[in-house]
Amino acid sequence: MQFGKIRDLREDHDLRQCEIAKYLGVKRTTYAMWELGDVNFPIEKLVKLAMYFHTNVEYMLNLTLDKREVIYDKDITVEFIGNQLRRYRLKLKKTQKEFADVLNIRQSSYSYYEDGKTRIPTNKLIKLVKTYHISLNSICGGKRKENISVKL
Q: Which of 22, 26, 64, 69 could covalently link to 30 via disulfide, CB atoms 3.0 to 4.6 Å apart?
């Protein structure tokens, strides 16, 4: 998986890999591997980066050309993503087995994702998003900036 847009965003802001790595709390070599697509970029780190660059996760992953900012108002944790996966699966009236089959894994392995026991790899999350036409920004708790009402 290539993350060219992430590199482009970093370079457009005249930032070095070590600066982004420090912001994300990882080693520069780890960030470099994520940016190159050699290692799966954890979704919670992608959300943090999207907020930093005032864009959205779907844009950074080449799922959309729309780079408008999305506000992620929740702390993105493994448990949060698991709950969101469960919520969307139930909304679609699908079973864990059906989701697991799409990912070519066992149902018991998929259940660990929903239970927040294991982080779903970003490439598997993208496969679910594409298969079921789910908004990855929504799974991450994101809302379009213009859709947020101000309470007085």
A: 26
pLDDT in tens, 41-69: 999 999 999 999 999 999 999 999 999 99
Q: Which residue has the tokens 């970029």?
A: 41
For 78-146, CATH gives 1.10.260.40
- Phi, psi (deg, nearest 5) at residue 116: 75, 20
Q: 114-136 burial, b if ≥16 CB within 10 A, otherwise e?
A: bebeebbbbebbbbbbeeeebbb
Please report, for residues 2, 16, 80, 146, the alpha-carbon distance to residue 12 in angstroms, rounded to integers and kept in the order given.
18, 10, 31, 25
Predicted confidence (pLDDT) at residue 150 exceeds the cutoff of 50: no
